[in-house]
Amino acid sequence: MLRTSNPALNENTFNVRAISGEETMTIRGTVNKSFILIGLVFCTAILSWDFMLKPDAGAAYVIGAAILALIAGLATSFKPTWSPYTAPAYALFEGVFLGAISGFFDAMYPGIAIQAVLLTCATFLCLLLAYRSGLIKATENFKLGIVAATGAIALIYLVSMVLGFFGIQIPLIHGNGIVGIIFSLVVVVIAALNLVLDFDFIEQGEANAAPKYMEWYASFGLLVTLVWLYIEILKLLVKLSSRRE
Predict the structure, then answer these.
(1) pLDDT band at 8 (very low <50, low <70, confident <90, very high)
(2) Strand partners, 211
(3) pTM of the full predicted structure?
(4) How far does Cα 121 stand from its chain's mean position?
(5) Using CA atoms, how far apart are residues 154 and 122, in angstroms rounded to an integer?
(6) CB–CB of 113/119 below 8 Å?
(7) How far apart are CA 238 and CA 245, in angstroms?
(8) Cα 238 to the chain's mean position, in Å?
(9) Does the pLDDT of residue 56 top 80, yes or no?
(10) Torsion of CA 43, 48, 50, 54, to 10 degrees
C-alpha cells in the first residue's frame, strides 16, 4: 500500500483513472505546472515583502492571505477536480504569507531569506537527484517511517499551538538553544524526506494513467511540502542567527 504524509497526496489520490481517449497525467506536465505554481508564489511574495513592517494594515493582509491559502488548500485536497483553479489560488495567497514573514525576518537578520530560498532549492535538487539515481528508494518501510515521523511532528506543533492559547509553551524546542536547534534540524530532515514520497506519488500518477487535471493536484502537493521545508529552514536559520547576537 502506498503511503505519503502529504495530506494532498494520500494513498487514494491516484485511484481515479482517465476516461478512454482522455489526456493523462505525465511527469513532464507535472513539472511544468510545478514551475507555474512556484512562479506565482514568488510573484506575490515579492509584492508582500514589507507587509509585516507596515504599522497600519500590513498584518491584517498577511493573516487574511494565510486564511485564504488554507481555504484554497483544503478545497484542492478535497476536490482534486478543482485543482487547475484552486492550486494557483493557493500559490498566490501562500506567496503573500511567505513574502511577508520572509521580509520581516530579513529585516532582523539581513540576507536570511535568500539563504533559506537557496537551501530549499539545494535540498530539493539533491533529493531529486538521489531519488532519480536510486540512491534513495521509496520502499514501504521508508514511507511508513516518514509518515510516522511527520505525524509526530504535526502532533507536537498541534499541542504547542493549543497550549499557546493558555500562555504555555513547550520548553526548549522553540528556543535557540542546543535542543531547539537539534529539533529544527530533525524537522528539516523529515520535511526534506517527504519530497521523496511526493516524487514517488507523482511517478505513480503517470503509471496509473491519472487524468490530466491531476498534474495540478500533484504539483500542489509538492508545493505544500516545499513551503513547509522553506519555513522550517527559515526558522532554523533564525535560531542560529539569534545565537550570534
Answers:
(1) low
(2) 24
(3) 0.89
(4) 12
(5) 24
(6) no
(7) 11
(8) 18
(9) no
(10) 160
